Amino acid sequence: MQRSRRRLSCFIFSLFFFASGIKAQQGYSRNDVLDCNYPMKAAPSPSYLYTCSEPRQHSCHAFLIYKSRQGYNSTETISHLLRSDSSELARINNVSNPYIFPTNKEVIVPVNCSCSGQYYYQAITFYVIDSDDTYYSLANDQYQGLSSCSALMGENLYDAENLSVGLKLLVPLRCACPTRNQSRDGVKYLLTYSINENDTIPDISERFNVSVKESLAANGFTDHEEAVIYPNTTLLIPLQSEPLSSQTIILEPIVYAPPPVSTLSTVNGEPKRSKKKLHFGLGAGVASLAVLCLLSLLLRRCHRKKMGRIKGK
Ligand SMILES: *[C@@H]1O[C@H](CO)[C@@H](O)[C@H](O)[C@H]1NC(C)=O
Ligand SMILES: *[C@@H]1O[C@H](CO)[C@@H](O)[C@H](O)[C@H]1NC(C)=O
Ligand SMILES: *[C@@H]1O[C@H](CO)[C@@H](O)[C@H](O)[C@H]1NC(C)=O
Ligand SMILES: *[C@@H]1O[C@H](CO)[C@@H](O)[C@H](O)[C@H]1NC(C)=O
Ligand SMILES: *[C@@H]1O[C@H](CO)[C@@H](O)[C@H](O)[C@H]1NC(C)=O
Ligand SMILES: *[C@@H]1O[C@H](CO)[C@@H](O)[C@H](O)[C@H]1NC(C)=O
Ligand SMILES: *[C@@H]1O[C@H](CO)[C@@H](O)[C@H](O)[C@H]1NC(C)=O
Ligand SMILES: *[C@@H]1O[C@H](CO)[C@@H](O)[C@H](O)[C@H]1NC(C)=O
C-alpha cells in the first residue's frame, strides 16, 4: 500500500520533473529542507537534494565541509562516515594520515558525486543506526545538514517511528556537478557548505576566493535582497580549483541555536538599505511638497475667486 503510493508519487514526481525541464542552475533550499515531509508533494526540489543538470554528467568530484566533533574527529572516522578516501582527505586538508582534527574544525571531504540515472545528484554513504537516531537528527545533527530529512526518508523504507539500533541506512549526501554555464566560466568543482549561525554569503565567498555574484548565481539567487540563508542548510560554492586547507577555519563552539536569519543585507546590503530609505525619504518629501503646493495653489485660487467676487460686488 505504502509502496504503491510511493511509486505513484514518484511517477507524479517524474512528470513534474520533465514538465519543469532540467534546471541548469541549482536553487537554494531555504529552510524547507528542515521539513521531513517535503518531497512527496512537490516537484524536484533542492529541499530534497540538488537536481541533475546539463551536461548530464554521470559523476564528478565534489567536496563537502564537515565540522569535526567528538567521535568523528579523525581522517579515518570522517572518511568512513562520509564514504570518502582517507588518504585523499588527508592530502586535501594538508595533514598526515591518520590525523586527529581539533573539535569544530572544518574538514574538506572529497566525494564522488553522481547522478547515475536518478533525478538527483548524491554522494552515497551508509550509516548504522545508533540509539536515539531519527531521520531529522541524522540529517541535521549527525550529517550537519549535508543530507536532508526528506531524502533520508525517501531512500529508506523504514518507518520514521521504527528506526531500531543496527539498521543500515543509505544516506544521500547533498552535492552537485558544475552546470554547462559554470564549466564555461571555469568552475571545476562545487563545494557543499553547511551554513553556520552568523554566516553571510559575502564572508563565505571571500573565504573560498569566489565572487559574491557567482556564489549567488550558483544557488539560484538573482539579487542580494532575496538572499536570506539559514543555519543547517547548504550553499554550493563554485570553485575554480580544489579548496585549500588554508580556507578552512575552526568554529567557535555553538552556545545556542535559535532559528535565525542571516541576511546578506546585514553585512553588504547596509548601504543599499539606507539608500532605499533615502529614496523613500526623498519620495515622501517630494510628495508632501507637491501636496503643499497643490494646497497653496487651491487656497490662492480660492482666495482670488473670493477676492474677485468681492471685487465684482
Ligand atoms: C547560460 O548562459 C547563457 C549565456 O550567457 C544564458 O543565456 C543562459 O540563460 C544561462 N543559463 C542559465 C540557466 O543560467
Ligand atoms: C576525538 O574523538 C575521540 C572519540 O572518538 C575522543 O576520545 C577524543 O578526545 C577526541 N579528540 C579530540 C581532540 O577532540
Ligand atoms: C571516486 O571515483 C574514482 C574514479 O572515478 C575512484 O577511483 C575513487 O575510488 C572513487 N572514490 C570513492 C570514495 O568511491
Ligand atoms: C601545509 O602545512 C604546512 C605546515 O604543516 C605548511 O608549511 C604548508 O604551506 C601547507 N600547505 C598548504 C598547501 O597549505
Ligand atoms: C542543526 O540542527 C541540529 C539538530 O536540530 C542542531 O543540534 C544544531 O544546533 C543545528 N545547527 C545550527 C548551526 O543551527
Ligand atoms: C517495526 O519493525 C518491526 C520489525 O523490524 C516490525 O515487525 C513492526 O511491524 C514495525 N512497526 C511499525 C509500526 O512499522
Ligand atoms: C552570532 O552573533 C551574535 C550577535 O553578534 C552573537 O551573540 C553570537 O555569539 C554569534 N554566534 C556565533 C556562533 O558566533
Ligand atoms: C583567487 O582566485 C583568482 C582567480 O579567480 C586567482 O587568480 C587567485 O590567485 C586566487 N587567490 C588565492 C589566494 O587563491
TrEMBL record:
Keywords associated with the record: Membrane, Signal, Transmembrane, Transmembrane helix
Segments passing through the bilayer: 278-299
SUPFAM superfamilies: LysM domain
InterPro entries for this protein: LysM, LysM2_CERK1_LYK3_4_5, LysM3_LYK4_5, LysM_dom_sf, NFP_LYK_LysM1, Plant_RLK_LysM
Signal peptide span: 1-24
Pfam family for this entry, one: LysM2_CERK1_LYK3_4_5
All residue ranges annotated as the LysM domain in the record: 191-237
Protein's name in the database: Protein LYK5-like
